[in-house]
Amino acid sequence: MLGVLNYYVNFGRAEILFLFFFSLILYLFLRFLTLLVQKVFWRSADQSFSKQQLLQSAFGFCLFTLFYLIAVGMAMKIIDTHPSVAKITAIDNFLMDADKTIFGVYVPFWFQSSTNVLKPLFDWLSVIFITTYLSLGTVLALVFVFVLAVNSQKFYQMFLAFLLSIILSLPFWYFFPSLSPLEGYVDNIIKSYVPGSIVTVISLYDSNDELNKFFDHVRTVRAGMSGNFMAVTTMPSMHVAWATIALYFGVLAWAALAYFLVPFYILTFIAAIYTMQHYAVDTFAGALIAVAAIIIVNKFLKQEPPLIISDLTSFAGRGLSFFVSLFGNRLKKN
Description:
Blueprint: H1 2-9, H2 14-40, H3 51-79, H4 85-103, H5 107-110, H6 119-134, H7 136-150, H8 152-175, H9 181-186, H10 196-203, H11 209-223, H12 238-253, H13 258-274, H14 280-300, H15 308-333
């Protein structure tokens, strides 16, 4: 289990799982603080402090923590399971053929194909793609914190959507285990048969120095795993799923975040394929998983009362707007 977790730490995923657990604890603390302030200060006339409210929050916290631990435990168990080589090979070939059928090319190999006239452009963007792929954990953490500060009700929905995306992906990881294009074809770690058409595109694949360094990093991490470790969570892409959740709730909290999150989302979509960690079809599958999680959360989750941090943020925002308008009026007079 620890070995599997170490693999994901190196690709910015485990930090997201730990962040989720930390967020649950922080949410419970802020819920208690809000109820305490309601009792002592301004809301006492409208809404009294209730032990039942605190117990409900604590129960909800414990329940979702339990679901979280079960989901992560099952995910790690699936990742550490060794499906048959024949099954993995069949699914990998199916995903690669799906890319070819839908997009006309074997997309993961197309970016760095020596016959691709756009290869110089992708070479120039290589550092951006790799950095984007590795920075998802940091960006998601910042969005979590921002949404919590601006709209705590949406924060509650966000971390539930995050958990639900993992739960919805578990059947795919179990019944459709697949390796990344790098592991399944370039390195062929299971020594499976590769169709002739794919052998041809592999021979034309000419990765640049930045990608080669990234691939070496992936191989180094994989070499440190105990046993014949295989990460069979390629389909659907959690990178794209979590980026979708971050985009949706981040923009809901503050529309101006779209200027950063939309480009980041597009780059994440491309980077997941460019770095040979995903097929094109499973990036779209990841987006659909996220959309399904968001729809379920919005439909069935009752609206939580706002936390104190939302009141404080709103108050600070009104104060800032007042001083900005005051300063602007003085400039006009001068």
